[in-house]
Amino acid sequence: MLSPVAENTIINSLNDSLQYIDTLFDHDVTIYITDTERILKILRSPKMSLGSKEGDPVPKVGPPAEALKTGKPVVQVVPKEMFGVPFRSYSIPIKDNESNIVGLLLAAKSLEKMEEVLTLSENVSSSLNQISLASGNIFRDIEKVVDSNSNTFNALNKANKNVKDTNEILKFIQSVSKQTNLLGLNAAIEASRAGDAGKGFSIVAQEIRKLSKSSSDSVRKIDSVLKEISNSMELVTDSINTSNSNFDAVSSEAEEIISSIQELALTAQALKELAEKI
């Protein structure tokens, strides 16, 4: 049992209980016992040094003075700026059997852990919000790429159709070329039959056949180039389809990630609100 600190048995009983109160609060609380004039006993927490000492007068202002005046407990949060550590102060009047105020039980409970949790939750929440924004931007960029690929795909399909239409034109030109060549051959035969009278016609026939051959060669070259273009467009189209499929899969995964991040952000916010109530 501790030595008596006053003639009042209630105050002495509280004095005897200090070691148990200290254990109850995990040695994280500083406790004062006062009469109505001065501080009688201090049980200090190693984590808080508030500067008062035994024998000092009870403060004439603030929560202790209010508790003495009203006879009601006063609880207040004291910011870090005042004493270097944040804490919650309790000013509880001590009354005798006739309800007269004979002193105060003052306690200061450190809020450092709460502030650490608050800071951590705010940092986590801020980081998650930034990640969520970045993920959202990536998701939108993916959608833009998919849209761009779709436009390119449609343009390639249209170009491929135009190539096929050109093939029909080339077939027509090739047919005309063959007919022209046949016409030139027939003209050459008739010119030969006409002898000297058909010499001029023979020259015309030769030119017709040259034009037919030239047209036919050009048609073959154009056809070859168009086939290469068509094959290249098909490869690009296949590549776009594959790319879109991959982007669809990534987009789906990105949505899941964003959803998970938002849930974590809500959890961090809930943790912050819980810490504020501690």
TrEMBL record:
All copies of domain Methyl-accepting transducer, residue ranges: 107-278
Keyword list, A-Z: Transducer
Record keyword Cytoplasm present: no
Residue ranges crossing the lipid bilayer per the database entry: none
Gene Ontology cellular component terms for the protein in this record: membrane
MF GO annotations: transmembrane signaling receptor activity
InterPro entries, alphabetized: Chemotax_Me-accpt_rcpt (IPR004090), MCPsignal_dom (IPR004089), Sensor-like_sf (IPR029151)
A Pfam cross-reference name: MCPsignal
GO biological process: chemotaxis; signal transduction
Entry's family note: Belongs to the methyl-accepting chemotaxis (MCP) protein family.
Protein name per its UniProtKB record: Putative sensory transducer protein YfmS
